[in-house]
Amino acid sequence: MLFWVKRRAFFLMIFFVGTAIFLALWFFVIQEQSFTLHQVSQIFPNLTSAIQSDQTSSPRNVSKNVLPTEKYISALDGTVLSAPEGPVIAVMIENHPQARVQHEGLSKASIVYEALAEGGITRFLALYSYQNLSWVGPVRSARPYFIDFASEYKAAYVHAGGSNDALTRLYSTKDLLNIEALYWEEISPESDTRIAHYFARDIQYAAPHNLFGSFAGIQSIINDKKWNVSLDRPHFLFGNVSSSVSGSVSGSSFFSASVSRFDIHFSTPSFEVEYVYDPVSDRYVRYLAGNIHHDSTGDITPRNILVQFTSYYPIDDEGRLEMKTSGSGKAFLFSGGRQYFGVWKKESDDVTRFYDDSGQQFVLRPGQTWITILNDEKSLEIYP
Hints:
This protein is α+β, with helices and mostly antiparallel strands. It has 8 helices and 26 strands.
């Protein structure tokens, strides 16, 4: 009798061990190797019909056996994409008061640089890599420091003319694809309408505030020039930053302060910028000259604003600027309703990195980022 008990126990042990091994292999094949159901059927032909039957009768189990769609992360803004992003497109967009009502593309950009051009007038450099837009603009002229910013992304740089220093640099650099809108406007059919292939003047607005780029046309130029340069790694780290006074990112601690609003004084009230944090959307509503800043598709509501302090000074009678874009300096990050304190650093042939006061790179929230260039902390007014 004892012999039969031991024998039954032995077979039961073999049965349970075998079952455990089988289930472990099954889990490994499905979850870790991401095999298709057809491939699994070649390995376990007797079980796939049961799986298919279970998927039909029990919807809650379908997601366990359906392979997820491949996803990609944008190197520019950290958002999840359904397809790889292409080369970076960097567009010079003007901010003259006569150009604002016709702004196009700013609200959809991944990154926007804002800096003075001359005469107290600011200008934008808007960066795109995956967006599907119709038009972008109004397109305006290049400046050397905007070329420096665009070069960090190996971008296709879209501009309409430029200062002498800027054009000299553009024609000699290999870090950018130079897309001169004034040239492509000339060879665009019907260039005084919005059906041009590349660039067009919108005749309902006064020149020079009416030159727009067709996004499809810009993409066509990039393809024709075989500019297949994409970012090899992100410029920024992305994640959700702690909202506590002493935040923690990647094991580092840094000081932050609650800030619900801050103003930027570039020059005159026409170029006054205000950011107001909206905790519901976790975004900042941008105001320009006292009005909510919007373009043709909606309000401009970035998730992050970086303020980079550097030195610049006028170099000619037009008030054009010489600006330091390498080296280091003070920097602030505004994100999630808080202000974080740190520095920016850039070697001459590297990209600009932003660090907190513990030496760790700033972590940004996924979404649009504006980078504001100032030379004096007095130009920044902060409200708790």
